[in-house]
Each structure stands twice: as C-alpha cells, then as structure tokens.
Amino acid sequence: MDVLTDNFSLYGKGFLGTVELTFYASILAMVLGFVMASFRVAPVGSLRVIGTVWVTVLRNTPLTLLFFAVLLGLPRFGLVLPFNVFAILALGCYTSAFICEVLRSGINTVPTGQGEAARSLGMTFGQTLGNVVLPQAFRSVIPPVGSTLIALAKNSAIAGAFSVTELLGTYKTLNELGYNIIWTFVWIAVGYLIITLTISAIFNVLEKRWGVAR
C-alpha cells in the first residue's frame, strides 16, 4: 500500500490523464466513425471511396506509428498543439475506423426493405439513415461499441511514451524513486480496471435499456 499512499497524487494525475484521453478520444471516434459509416453506405461513389480508404488505412496502420505521424509529423507542417491534443487525435482517428465498421455491420442488419419503404415515402438518404436505419442499427451494436471503447482506454497507454500524462507513465517516476516495480504495476492495473469496468457498466445499462433481445 505504501506505493499508492505515498504517491497518491501522482497516481491520481495519471489516472485523470487517462480518463481525459479516453473521454475525448471516444467522442472523436464516435463522431468520425458515424460519419465514415454513413459514407460507406452512401449512394455516392466518391463518399464510399473516402470511407473505404479511411478504414483501410487506419485499421492496417500500427497505432504507435500513427502516434509518431501525428505527434511528430504534424508540427513539421506548422500545426502546433499540446501533446495531449495530438494524442486524442491519434487515438480518436484510429478507433473511428473500428467504430465505423461496427456501425456499418449494424446498418447491414436492418432489412433493405425498410430503407426502400422509406425512400418510397419520399425520404432522402439522410432522413432514411437518421430516422429509420440508424435507430435500429444502434440497438444491435451497443456491445461491440463498448468493447471498442474499452480497447481505446487501454490503447491510451501508448501516449505516455510521447510525454503525455497518463496512468502507465507513472511507473517511470516510481521506478526512479526506487519503489517495488511489481506493486507499481499492480496499482496501475487497478486504475485501468476501474476505467474499463466503468465503461463496461455504462454499456451494460445501455444494452439492457435499448439492446436487441436475443
């Protein structure tokens, strides 16, 4: 317990840093994932190409490489932002590709006849997607979206290697201070467990309320 009690503020700062990264990156991932999923099922060919390229590139790019590209590459083009903002961009964009595919799979579970019926009533593509398809698709994708955001929370550990304050990075300071490395990582693991269990609990509530009964 000494590792935790003697360094509670350090652990707390790292914990809040991870929570902040997870929260803002999750919002970005959800927004971009929704946009790209809409592109991938759009009737406009150019939008489908954009969505496909986005997903293909990001899903097949190692997250660490994406961090290097964003945190070290963008400043060379004159875009200078705090490192935590760059980390949110990297995490959010990377995870959006997976959110996109989860949403697209949910959209594909909605019978095509529903979309055709909506269009026969004069609805536009946007109205059909927003009022008919997505509300039904959302109910079937709650569990996989939750799992993807849990993975995002754990992936945020990479940000510590780029001078971003987060939970895993606290081990460097504690190791230099001579604390037992095993107990250092035990409390770090507890912190991640709290975050991931919280996300899981939120999505369990959403699933019980809106999920599809199986």
TrEMBL record:
Signal peptide residue numbers: none
Q: Where are the transmembrane segments?
A: 21-41, 53-72, 79-99, 181-206
Q: What membrane topology was assigned to this protein in its record?
A: Multi-pass membrane protein
Recite the UniProt keywords alphabetically.
Amino-acid transport, Cell membrane, Membrane, Transmembrane, Transmembrane helix, Transport
Xref: PROSITE patterns: ABC_TM1
Principal location listed in the UniProt entry:
membrane
Any Pfam family from its record, for instance, is BPD_transp_1
ABC transmembrane type-1 domain residues: 15-203
Mind telling me which InterPro entries this protein's record contains?
AA_ABC_transptr_permease_3TM, ArtM/GltK/GlnP/TcyL/YhdX-like, MetI-like, MetI-like_sf
Subcellular localization, as worded in the UniProt entry: Cell membrane
Asked if GTP-binding is a keyword of the record, the answer is no
Family, as annotated = Belongs to the binding-protein-dependent transport system permease family. HisMQ subfamily.
Protein name, entry field: Amino acid ABC transporter permease
* Organism, as annotated: Streptomyces poriferorum
